[in-house]
Write a structure and sequence with these properties.
The protein is an alpha+beta fold and 79 residues long. It is built from 1 helix and 4 strands. The protein has a two-stranded antiparallel sheet with strand order 1-4. The longest helix is centred in the middle third of the chain and has 13 residues, at 46-58. It is globular. It starts with a strand and ends in a 21-residue tail after the last helix.
Amino acid sequence: MRKIVVATAVLNEDGEVLLLRRSNAGSWQGRWNFPGGKYDSTDKDLTSAAQRETKEEAGIDVHNLIFMGKVVYKAFDLY
């Protein structure tokens, strides 16, 4: 099954980048990553999915998003 995910690189005026640390439960425990998650049927496009996920995970509203590209990869199991 094909899965579409989004990620948002959030920069502030000082050029600092927002990273979130995953909890110690579930997959990718304790690792750092950009806010993001799965695109779902309620999203009108990838931008709205990125905005929704950033709000859900970081509690902030993001605007002026710039689409940077997409990555297509074959799913694999790291463990």
